[in-house]
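Quick question, first post here. What does this chain look like in 3D?
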Amino acid sequence: MAVITSKYIDIPGMNNTRDLGGMRTKDGHVIRPHMLYRSSKLRSLRDPDWFIRNVELVVDMRSSREVSENPDPHIPGVGYLHLPIFEVQSAGITRDRISDRQMAAPDPETATARMAAVYTRFVTDEFSLSQYRRFIRLLFEPREKALLWHCSAGKDRTGIGALFIQELLGVSRDDIMADYLITNKYIKDEVRQIADRITAQNGSMDENAKKGSLAFLDANEKYPLTVYAEVQTRYGSFDSFIREGLGVSDSEREYLKQRYLEQTKR
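> Answer (accepted):
Ran it through. Tokens below.
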């Protein structure tokens, strides 16, 4: 069966805004459309009309430094919540001037290992995990329009937020992984521009070092697989992680499924 990923939304100035609606679950349901949106930063947004019509709350997962350097635009009638997943610089994750200067590695293998290590912090760092718990609690709040969350590229912090929701709602692992990886399709031009800038900032770099910079920026299946492995080690299963790590009881999970899922249309 072919995988199903989140639906790309074409918004002027945005390159990675997607609707989780339509993604299927293992028990024959699909996520309701127009309720859960993931995105990259909003700094380049040129036309806020889509947000005004469709979004009730924007959740900004970037650090305070990132927000200070590239604040989201004010969008009339749309709520805003700053919910940083990391507050310390993390090369390849946070996107501020200091982090970008640290985004260098002698080869792609080293960069990939460093990024995978950072991904473990999504489920081992108490601050990060507590922020994701707060994020998940937002799913319970009543709202007439959608919840949208974003970081910088919409790949790492946003991608793991999406992964948590998809697992919680019962999306297949294959579809979750495909949805994570399809980010590369939408951010490839931005990634190359950033890699070129890092190369210029760090002076002469050989080909391996350039590939190392790209390894920080690309979506790589090894990164979410690191999260899954860490969850298995610490909690025994993802269901246990949902209960103990994210603090969502079985009955609360059923409520969220009723709220955000619908039967597959025949």
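Residues 61 and 229 are 23 Å apart (CA to CA).
The chain has a mean pLDDT of 90.
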